[in-house]
Design a protein that fits this description.
Blueprint: E1 6-11, E2 14-19, H1 30-44, E3 51-55, E4 60-62, H2 67-70, H3 75-81, H4 90-93, E5 98-102, E6 105-107, H5 109-116, E7 119-123, E8 127-129, H6 146-151, H7 153-162, E9 166-167, H8 168-174, E10 179-181, H9 186-198, H10 202-214, H11 220-234, H12 238-248
Parallel strand pairs: 2-3, 3-5, 4-6, 5-7, 6-8, 7-10
Antiparallel strand pairs: 1-2, 8-9
Helix pairs in contact: 10-11
Bound molecules: acetoacetyl-coenzyme A.
């Protein structure tokens, strides 16, 4: 499929979605968001895809929602179209594991999209920020919510109230990103992790992802109960039996994804 604002490819069970609007630092206009949503939905429905990597360019993962596209909208417009809703949350809703590979700026909606992925792998050049306050608005796609859950109140308040950016090392210390690597190694490392996930039992990986996500939506007791029951449920998978048999027999498991 030909896209205008993104590029896609698949390699050995891993799908790559590359935001590709470099002249605007991958600013997220309606067209880019619609294309990203369509590509992500397609890969999520493809049983041959075991992990999806979303990335941008060297200078910018994405510098936010497209300010020029929204500057003339009024309240009635954004309320009527429920602006920053259609297709924006697709990445957060996928069942397939996802990785955001971030180099350069991940600002505003760019930081928010990265946070919708299951994990962020960052280049040492990455800069994360919620600068909406400096253009007279606030985040609309999770910058006050997912960021606060990821890094805690104080750092989130600092980022949301000043609009200042944090670097990759700060993001790592705060728990916003899983790993920081030299810029030149970003895609190799993101694809290595993605291939590892794609090479595991897909139904088990999916329930593991679902269980982690329950931690954000439940009390601890409810979350533990969900985890325990889901752990029990993995005993219905042929792959659970295979994984433990392979361990005991000192061989590699042959996953059937069943
Ligand atoms: N929207 C539209 N265009 C953008 C953009 C954005 N968010 N970010 C960058 N661009 C455009 C610039 O206008 C510029 O275009 P022209 O060449 O046509 O002038 C081009 O991309 C290159 O950008 P700069 O010349 O500004 O590059 P720089 O290296 O000097 O600065 C930057 C880089 C610090 C990231 C700066 O571009 C910037 O501050 N961008 C805006 C960041 C921002 O405020 N993001 C939040 C948007 S609101 C939002 O995202 C709401 C939400 O929660 C969903």
């Amino acid at each position: 499929m030909a896209y205008e604002y993104i590029e896609t490819e698949t390699r050995d069970g891993v799908a790559i979605v590359t935001l590709n609007r470099p002249e605007a630092l991958n600013a997220l206009n309606a067209g880019l968001i619609a294309e990203m949503g369509a590509a992500l939905r397609g890969f999520d429905a493809d049983p041959a895809v075991g992990c999806i990597v979303v990335t941008g360019g060297e200078k910018a993962f994405a510098a936010g929602a497209d300010i020029k596209e929204m500057r003339d909208k009024g309240y009635a417009d954004v309320a009527a179209e429920d602006f920053i809703t259609d297709d924006w949350e697709v990445l957060a809703d996928l069942r397939t594991p996802t990785i955001a590979a971030v180099s350069g700026y991940a600002l505003g909606g760019g930081c928010e999209v990265a946070m919708m992925a299951d994990m962020i792998v960052a280049a040492d050049t990455a800069k994360f920020g919620q600068p909406e306050i400096t253009i007279g608005t606030i985040p609309g796609a999770g910058g006050t919510q997912r960021l606060t859950r990821a890094v805690g109140k104080s750092l989130s308040m600092y980022m949301n109230l000043t609009g200042e950016f944090i670097d990759a090392e700060t993001a790592l210390r705060a728990g916003l990103v899983a790993k920081v690597v030299p810029q030149a190694e970003l895609m190799d490392e993101a694809l290595r992790i993605a291939a590892k996930i794609a090479g595991l039992s897909q139904p088990v990986v999916r329930v593991a992802k679902e269980a982690v996500n329950v931690a954000f939506e439940s009390t601890l007791a409810e979350g533990i109960r969900f985890e325990r029951r889901t752990f029990h449920a993995t005993f219905a998978f042929e792959d659970r039996k295979e994984g433990m048999a392979a361990f005991a027999e000192k061989r590699k498991p042959a996953w059937k994804n069943r």
